[in-house]
Amino acid sequence: MTNVISNATSSEPISILLVDDHPMIRLGLRQIIEDEPLFLLAGEAENGRVAVEKFELLRPDLVLMDLNMPEMDGMEAIRRIRAIAPKAHVVILTSLDGEEDVFRGLKAGARGYLLKDAPASQIAECILTVTHGNKYVSPYMAGKLAARVDHDALSERELEILQWLSEGKSNKEIARLALVTEGTVKFHVNNILFKMSAATRTGAVVNGLKRALITLH
């Protein structure tokens, strides 16, 4: 790979911790890091638990974090790393391309979000951008995130009601649990259907599960 950031100025290389449970993915990322003179491989981790331990030990400048991993997933690892170092630079590099995944990742504290099929030049650009204190989301994912924020964001109350809908509760039961009137519940349900682009309560629940907004108990 060409040194895409060779013109940048830095007195010290950017130390990076790679976190992914697939050895071949780590191998490819390791090659990208070794090809860039401004990057330095600080260490590798195969799951979120090890990532948190190595972050606390190594204190790298940036963490490249997968999301789906055994023992501890990337979201929880990000939260724990940010608890150790609130200003930690974390970039999510994953195969998950749902807008809710981006939203949750950034909310957890990540400063960048890329898909694993991103070209090496984009990964390098993201690393440099984030270590300079800015956020970086690929144009494709940024478009999906904007749509989610503009049109699909549910309020905390709506998320709560959507969870109750997934449990098969009626408007009357929800009203009793939420301490509101049935009319208020109906108003919220209509908003949920609109925001989730669903014609029925079941459709809204299905969409909510796909976006990881709710879970089945």
Helicity, in percent?
A: 40-55%
Q: Could you tell me the number of beta strands?
A: 6
CATH topology of the largest domain: Rossmann fold
CATH architecture of the largest domain: 3-Layer(aba) Sandwich
- For the largest beta sheet, what order do the strands appear in spatially? 2-1-3-4-5-6
- State the end-to-end distance: 47 Å
Give a short account of the largest sheet. Answer: 6 strands, parallel
Relative strand content: 5-15%
Which H/E pattern describes the elements? EHEHEHEHEHEHHHHH
Number of domains: 2
Going by CATH, what is the homologous superfamily of the largest domain? Answer: Response regulator
Overall pLDDT confidence: 86
Q: What is the SS-derived class?
A: alpha/beta
Using the coordinates above, name the CATH class of the largest domain. Answer: Alpha Beta
Name some characteristics of this structure.
217 residues; alpha/beta; Arc Repressor Mutant, subunit A; 2 domains; six-stranded parallel β-sheet; 10 helices
